[in-house]
Specification:
289 residues, mainly alpha, Rhopdopsin 7-helix transmembrane proteins, 9 helices, globular, oxysterol binding, receptor, transmembrane helix, GPCR_Rhodpsn, GPCR_Rhodpsn_7TM
Amino acid sequence: MRMFNSCITQQNYSSNDTVLHSSEKLHAVLIVLYIINLAGGTLGVIMMSQQLFHRRSQSVMTIMIISLLVLHSFMLFSIPFRLSYYILGEWKFGRFACRLASAIIYLHMYATFALYAAIIMARLLRLELRKCYTAAWVGAGWLLGALVVTPVLLSYYGTSKTYRPCECFQFHRELQEAHMVITNYCLVGVLVAVCAVLTAIQLTVIYRVAVKYWPDVNSHVEFRAQAKSFFFILVTLVCFMPHHVFRVYYIQNYNLDKDQKLLLYNEVFLALTTMCCLDMLCFIAGIAH
């Protein structure tokens, strides 16, 4: 694997064979994760798109799923660029493309989490919104993301420091800025707090419904609906939570990371967040609807 680590190795790692071998293993993990997510995510998006086309459903849930499909498609489009970097060990697409590909994965993660939270709350509160209202809210969210959040993020993300042209996804020096540290802590705090509250509420609702309909809980639509909603919380706990927990540790210790091993661990946890795109395969399998 040393043959493709030219730029990365020259900049980031010492000549110590143990450190270099460890970095190569982490690069291999990144490549495997992204290949799995690209293949599984693409298959899930295609299969779910076909199902929606044949069903021609006009429900609120359909609008949410279509939004997830679009989000996943944008993220999946960026994965080949990441694979190219980790396989070749060199970024060949320019600085703006690097910042865009890096920003997409964060935009995808938080937008997906927002959609998950909206779906969970709609089911918990049994909201029966009209399709036009749901479409309006989702459309407003897309406009806000496309016209405000994304331009602002690209205007500041990865611009305060100088990086080598062959490098990418290594914006850790941005953490020297106080506002970047505060922003990261706020994002971690919000996601963890929202996830904790939704998890507690959802488990409580599932418990009450299970007690109410015991022992024939599986035969009741209400229990199955709440159990399926918990799927979104599980995705958040498995895919998003590890990255945010590690992010706190990384922010506090990145300046001690002489071999930049923590940087690669952070990239592995970030790659784990893209596994949420496999949720479409779970939909196809009937785990969530």
